[in-house]
Every structure is written in structure tokens, then in C-alpha cells.
Specification:
eight-stranded mixed beta sheet, 8 strands, Aminopeptidase, alpha/beta, 33% helix, binds zinc ion
Length: 225
């Protein structure tokens, strides 16, 4: 069963914000902080929540910090922990916290059947086509052919971010145990990872994350601009 509107807690520090519009429409899920050292997406979602972001149609689900212990440590994963974004689809009976959390999140995705699952990431390396892997300033997708929404959103994003090195590229980079890719396979939605380059100051990166959320929600019809 889909969650009702409100804040639901996967743990005392892991809120799942569910907003429902009066008008019918699809469901979009936006999450950040699956890697604890990638803070701009976390702060962008917290700002959007403070600004009372709401869907105009359907359901918007916001998870600002997927892995609170990693975020507090400002590490990709907490010391002694697992990389949460390599734990999907997870295991409800596993001793590892990350595998149990991944399974809980997958069950949420199966209940909610989103059309979009967006994960906000950051990277120390700026993307260059000849450097593999490099992710900074990309919108990453895991399936071919490239979902058309990627090019539509990147062209709008690149109208807003025109300074040196700011422009964003599409990048095909499947990761079989990531939250987005496993969700795509299970639900058939569009799954994207947005990656900013940490070479920019945090305020600029937060603006980029807020912009991609706004543009993607507009494109899928959950929050029309
Ligand atoms: Zn990441």
C-alpha cells in the first residue's frame, strides 16, 4: 500500500516526506545522502522542504538523507559500514544495517510505483569522456536507449548553468546494485543519478541540485513550473 501524506520514519533520523496533490498524477521519488560525503544534494532537499516544495499533481516523496550515519561522518559509508548504494535490492534478514535499509527502501518503491527515482550525488572528479570513471557534472542513466527525459532536462539545465565547467553531460553508467538501477528493474521507472562536481563551492552545487529536481519534477508532471 502507498504511504499516506505526512512524514514517515525509517529510523529516528531518517524521515520519508510524502506529499500528495489534490490533482491526480504520477509519483516521483527524490533522495540524497546515500553517500555521506556528498552533501549538496542533502542540503538542496532540506532547502526545498523548508521552502515547502509541493506537488501540483500526484505524489512527491523526498528522502533528504538516505544514510544518516554516513552523512554525520561525512564519509561515503560509516566506518565499518557498507556502501548503501551497492546494497540493493537488500535483505530484510541480513545482519548489516545497510542491507536491511536497502530492502525497506525497495519495498517502498514497489508500493509506490514511481515514474521517476532520482538520486542526488557528488563527485570529486569532473567528468571527461576519456577518464573512466568520472562523474562530476553528469546526469547518469543505466539503461539503453537513453530515456528522452535526460536530454530534455539537460538542455534546460545547461541554459541555467553557463559558467566555465558548469555544463552537464549525459552519462551511461549502469551499476547493478545501486538504488536507482534496481528500482528501474523492479518498477520500470526512469532512474537517474545526478552528479555535481565538488570543484564548485557548495552554494553553487546546491543551486544545481535544486534546479535538476525542479526540472525533472516539471518534466514528469508532478510539479508543473
Ligand atoms: Zn555518490
Amino acid at each position: 500500500m502507498p504511504l499516506p501524506a505526512g512524514v514517515h520514519w525509517f529510523s529516528p533520523t531518517l524521515p520519508i516526506h510524502v506529499f500528495k496533490a489534490r490533482a491526480e498524477g504520477p509519483t516521483a521519488v527524490v533522495q540524497a545522502g546515500i553517500h555521506g560525503d556528498e552533501v549538496a544534494g542533502v542540503h538542496a532537499l532540506e532547502e526545498l522542504l523548508e521552502e515547502e516544495v509541493r506537488p501540483s499533481h500526484g505524489t512527491l516523496i523526498v528522502v533528504p538523507v538516505m544514510n544518516p550515519p554516513a552523512y554525520r561522518a561525512r564519509l561515503r559509508m560509516p566506518i565499518g559500514g557498507l556502501d548503501l548504494n551497492r546494497c540493493f535490492p537488500g535483505d530484510a534478514d541480513a545482519p548489516e544495517r545497510e542491507l536491511r535499509l536497502a530492502r525497506r527502501f525497495m519495498d517502498l518503491m514497489l508500493d509506490e510505483r514511481p515514474v521517476l527515482c532520482l538520486t542526488l550525488h557528488e563527485s570529486k572528479k569532473r567528468f571527461r569522456p576519456d577518464i573512466v570513471p568520472s562523474f562530476g557534472q553528469t546526469l547518469v542513466y543505466g539503461v539503453e536507449p537513453r530515456p528522452p527525459v535526460v536530454d530534455r532536462v539537460l538542455s534546460r539545465l545547461n541554459e541555467r548553468f553557463t559558467e566555465d565547467e558548469e555544463s552537464f553531460d549525459p552519462l551511461h553508467y549502469p551499476v547493478s546494485t545501486s538504488s536507482t538501477e534496481v528500482t528501474v528493474q523492479a518498477v520500470g521507472c526512469v532512474g537517474l543519478c545526478f552528479e555535481t562536481w565538488m570543484g564548485f563551492d557548495e552554494g553553487r552545487r546546491i543551486k544545481m541540485h535544486k534546479a535538476v529536481v525542479e526540472l525533472l519534477l516539471d518534466d514528469v508532471g508532478v510539479r508543473k513550473l
